[in-house]
Description:
The structure holds two protein chains of two kinds. Chain A is an all-alpha fold. Chain A has helices at 12-44, 48-79, 83-116, 126-149, 152-182, 187-219, 228-236. Chain A has seven helices and no strands. In chain A, helix 4 (126-149) packs antiparallel against helix 5 and helix 4 (126-149) packs parallel to helix 6 (187-219). Chain A is globular and about 70 Å long. By secondary structure, chain B is α/β, with parallel strands linked by helices. Chain B has helices at 2-7, 84-90, 121-127, 142-152, 159-172, 176-179, 192-204, 222-235, 248-254, 272-277, 282-288; strands at 11-15, 26-30, 33-34, 43-54, 58-69, 73-77, 102-109, 112-113, 128-131, 210-214, 240-244, 257-262, 265-271. The two termini of chain B are 38 Å apart. The A-B interface holds A 1, 3, 8-11, 14, 80-87, 220-221 and B 248-249, 252, 276-280, 282, 284-286, 288-293.
Amino acid sequence: MEDMNTTQHTSQKYNHELEEARSKLMTMGGLVETQVTNAIKALLERDSSLGEKVSFSDYEINSMEVAIDEHCAEIIARRQPAASDLRLLITIIKVITDLERIGDEAEKVGRYAVEMAETPTYGGLHSSLRHLSGHVKTMLSETLDALARLDVEQAMQVVKNDQQVDDEFDSITRQLYTRMLEDPRNIKDSLNVTWCARSLERIGDHCKNICEYVIYLVKGKDVRHTNLDKIRETILGE
Amino acid sequence: MMEATLDMTTVAKVNTATSGGREEFSHTISGTIGKPYLDGKDAKFFCRDVNVFYSGDKQAIFDVNMDIGRNEVIAMIGPSGCGKSTFLRCMNRMNDTIEGCRVTGDIRLDGEDIHDKEQDPVLLRARVGMVFQKPNPFPKSIYDNVAYGPRLHGLAANRAELDDIVEQSLTKAGLFKEVKDRLQSPGTGLSGGQQQRLCIARTIAVSPEVILMDEPTSALDPIATATIEELIDELRASFTICIVTHSMQQAARISQRTAYFHMGYLVELNDTKTVFTNPQHQLTENYITGRFG
């Protein structure tokens, strides 16, 4: 059932409640995207005040998560949703958990950005970090796009792209190992770079999770913990 | 046989337009989506190409094909007038009692054609019992309500055996403890929920194989409803149960498979879990989620 129109219920109030849940979700997604963008900017441009701002703004995302959860619980209690409406609410409840965690990772990157603002070289990994950041930012914006448009193809693409982010993270880690072995005085800086790269990689993982929920919402098939070929097979096998 | 009937699909265009100038939506029903058929051995009821006509040529049911399994609770849902009750009544030939009603097609109970000339509808209705929307106890004592069927069919050789049947039936219906000290009081003096359980006891007293229920809890409060639903789940061990209900939550709670009827067509018959989480037909989806009324 790909008809996700929430405006056709006999009960107009129900339409309104579901629409509100969806729009709150997208607002939260927008907030998270801003946080991630700012955190990355703070990191790459060594902007400690922006880094501080990011680490202090996480509470907004947290309170949105609580509010959306409450709204969804109320709809479930009052309406006993079924079929696509049920899947929509389950998806929203799951997605906001991942969004909140993306917010947490952005907050961490913000904090490291403050700490690392004085580090001159990032262990020579500035360009690798820039590359990884760029990928993660694109993944997040494509994820939110897939979520807004319920675009299964796009969601599939994000799931696929996560592997690339994982590979880049591994490559950064290997370079940092070498650097730490070469001179133990580099360990502190290198660890900070590792934590940042780790947070960025985790954001990629959360995007992948969200896209799997989008596939569940649209197709009614749970594709978590399966490989790409299986996912494609599941989707096409209808 | 199975392959032949599987090919016989019904194609129909139906309109789900409602009044008030809303946009009209046309949907195609092409056969029944889901799992209408079971492995032949498991089917208690075997229904093929069932059509029902009321006086004249007004058709109420169009080419319904389905199997109903042993020890299965199958729920039939759909908007008012969709034919679910009409179809339910086909299964114990209750439609025979309606003037001008004509049923065609093949309906078999354990392989026996229920429309066979040799088939005695009274015996059929003993094998396929029915519980109605409104509790309808006879104006007799609680004991006599339950003993009526066994007496009629000569199921008890003596009073002790009859007592036994009455006690067992009331126990199975979850009513015995509440009424054991007043078996001679009138059945009509019980509460609504108790009366409905009395009707269920009366139905199971003749050891049916299938129980048809037509909105059995629509006149009951939530506690009495929960009691009956619990009872249905227990009865499943011994009987096949077909239930027509307007409460989708009830269908979701108690059935293993759910059938969705729409304007006389069986649109979708699938595992209840699938119907309520990921229905395959847009019409089912619309009904389940409360779209278009």
